[in-house]
Amino acid sequence: MVPHLITSLTGPINELEARIIDSMPAIERWFRLEWMEHTPPFYTSVDLRNAGFKLAPVDTNLFPGGFNNLTPEMLPLAVQAAMAAVEKICPEAKNLLLVPEKHTRNPFYLMNVQRLMQIFTQAGLNVRLGSLDAAIKEPTRLALPDGSELLVEPLVRNRGRLGLKDFDPCTILLNNDLSAGIPGVLEDLHQQYLLPPLHAGWAVRRKSLHFQSYEEVAKKFAKLLGMDPWLINPMYTQCGKVNFSEGAGIECVKSNAEALIAKIRRKYKEYGINEKPFVIVKADAGTYGMGIMTVRDPKELDELNRRTRNKMSVIKDGQEVTEVIIQEGVPTYERVNDAVAEPVVYMIDRYVVGGFYRVHADRGIDENLNAPGSSFVPLAFAESNLLPKAGSKPGASAPNRFYMYGVIARLAMLAASYELEATDPEAEIYE
Amino acid sequence: MVPHLITSLTGPINELEARIIDSMPAIERWFRLEWMEHTPPFYTSVDLRNAGFKLAPVDTNLFPGGFNNLTPEMLPLAVQAAMAAVEKICPEAKNLLLVPEKHTRNPFYLMNVQRLMQIFTQAGLNVRLGSLDAAIKEPTRLALPDGSELLVEPLVRNRGRLGLKDFDPCTILLNNDLSAGIPGVLEDLHQQYLLPPLHAGWAVRRKSLHFQSYEEVAKKFAKLLGMDPWLINPMYTQCGKVNFSEGAGIECVKSNAEALIAKIRRKYKEYGINEKPFVIVKADAGTYGMGIMTVRDPKELDELNRRTRNKMSVIKDGQEVTEVIIQEGVPTYERVNDAVAEPVVYMIDRYVVGGFYRVHADRGIDENLNAPGSSFVPLAFAESNLLPKAGSKPGASAPNRFYMYGVIARLAMLAASYELEATDPEAEIYE
């Protein structure tokens, strides 16, 4: 299904699209060369915002939880990419242990887990689920909306190896982002492949470092295409010691927001963009769309109400927010049936395998859409993303737009790869 | 589009399908391990025959010429597989030189060339066409049915490298099966990747060696699944000095055909198959569906008419037939709209990327369908081949059937890989 889209793609983004389509072989070669030097994350999803004058990733998830939102038509690509990934990591693998989020009976999330099991089963692995939830003391069946069930089993740790009863996996695939910290049972697993690595979890990861890496990637890519990296790069600053509930450190957020808004205003002026700049303040280690606020005027920060303070204080798994990233707000001008929409691109290994639009009827173009009330419309990525057509009018061809989305999402994935190298505790240092 | 099929899948093949679906992770792992030791051909197509009691490859093409018969939905898989292939062979590649069949203005073949160019362009390469045809002395435009054009250019050989004017490729991809012999211009290209290698062409290749390798692969696979390899392996013998037009060496063909028919009859008896055995006599180095005859009774060989003698004497590019393979005939019990059909599976690198049914309304179930008058019905492979479903009734699920076809086709591809190792003139020998 191709969603009905009303998108105002204007000026710079049409030029960007045309340049990307024209440079396709050069871009693909550039990615090939980057992947010779850097290892892609095992799987990645990237939220994009297309403002018409700018297209940028705003969030890069290394534990994607929406595989159920991909259309069945995208499955073969996902299976093929999973085969390529498995082959590189552990070709002799028989068994894959999948560790999902704990404490969740959210049927959408469980459908994501089911879809992941399907993908890796079809890639040729025996897949079973092991839970980090201490309450799972015996094999437990979780019901799915389609009437089927998932069987979640307690983890069994034997010295250097993690598995289940009578199940010794070669690879452990985390679909749990470790927001609550790194559980002991996952530490020191040197005999098995643990993917993504522990330092990809939110116990270690910081958005600000990701966007620092992304800036580096965006600059390289912009040089390749001879363009201003700002067209694809959201500017950001950060504050390290914030306590919203006590009102501490808010001054830093305010002054950084002021400075960033001034920088955005200059860029808008340079490009003749008639928009009101805004910034997004987000927990630097946050996820699940929690701990996010839109700031249109820094003065708003002086008078935060209790609800906002609470919202910004505690995020997933009850973690307190003390570090925030202040990011250039990129409005989204994409619409699905009049509701504000943003594209989400899914990747396995280095391959784009699908995507969808996150749609929210009650949110504005400058607000976070990853919030209760959002829904998902599959993108016709499977048919289109790999099939751009030179010579189409910029902004008028869905395959060309999806190809562009796939390119920008892969830049964010490459940034995550740089980021994971920088934070790898076992990295060898050559100086 | 899923073709309307009437297939009588009975007895053994349903059991084979059930066994293959149940063993899927073991099968995929087995392939992964085989591909650690052996390099898949760059691209491969395999003709299968499903007799209901037996499913076997009958022809393995290392220069597939029907990419145009794949549905557009299969393209993304082909592009992704091509990316994986390019990445392994020559990741720094910018340019790919594609060498098509010469002397052909067949619009279907030209559409195949166009499709190949599209796949490799979208995998991120600059693709141009270079002709082995000495008559192509300057860039020549060939019209396609859709109104577009292909530009074919004369090859330029500079010492160790082959290219076009102002075009120096990293990889040369042959879509010309070298039936006419190995042209000097392709020899000693040690600085570039020439794929498939010269010894994959029909100047060197022999069907009998392929099926010898296939027998080895089928035995290994049958052991993995605990079954009789005959269920997937067509038996064969060969004759080396035959001249149909002069009537020489036909005695060898006749006695081998008699012996093979007797062997088939014993197998049919063992399985209670109520069919009349037959054999197929084919040029050992032949292709294009030329030089093929069905022999139901060896006595027919005593009284070959002039037309048949001529048909069996000369094949593609005017090559004389002197070696033949006598292969167990596998009837096809697949039907598309009442016409006899056989599945053809397309692969790039180790991945199944699509397939179609070759359909011939005027041919019998025991005849070669690769003949004038055949047409093509795309298989819904892209959606289905990678998505088998455990628990479906054997013979009743299209995805399970297509998965089985993909497995048997990959066995034939693996056999081709063994075969190319055995015939590699540059192979190092460890004894």
Q: If you had to describe this structure to a student in words, what would you say it looks like?
A:
- 2 copies of one chain form a homodimer.
- Chain A is an alpha+beta fold.
- Chain A has helices at residues 11-22, 24-37, 75-89, 107-122, 207-225, 250-271, 306-313, 381-384, 398-423, and strands at 5-7, 43-50, 55-61, 95-100, 126-131, 140-143, 149-154, 156-158, 161-163, 171-175, 193-195, 236-239, 279-283, 292-295, 324-328, 334-336, 339-348, 351-360, 375-378.
- In chain A, strands 1, 2, 3, 16, 17, 18 and 19 form a 7-stranded antiparallel beta sheet that branches. In chain A, strands 6-7-5-4-10-11 form a 6-stranded mixed beta sheet. Chain A has a 4-stranded antiparallel beta sheet with strand order 12-15-13-14, sandwiched between helices.
- In chain A, helix 5 packs across helix 9.
- The N and C termini of chain A lie far apart (52 Å).
- The relative contact order of chain A is 0.18.
- Residues 1-9 of chain A have low confidence and may be disordered.
- The A-B interface holds A 24-29, 31-33, 35-36, 72-73, 75-77, 79-81, 83-84, 86-87, 91-94, 121-126, 351, 382-383, 385-388 and B 24-29, 31-33, 35-36, 72-73, 75-77, 79-81, 83-84, 86-87, 91-94, 121-126, 351, 382-383, 385-388.
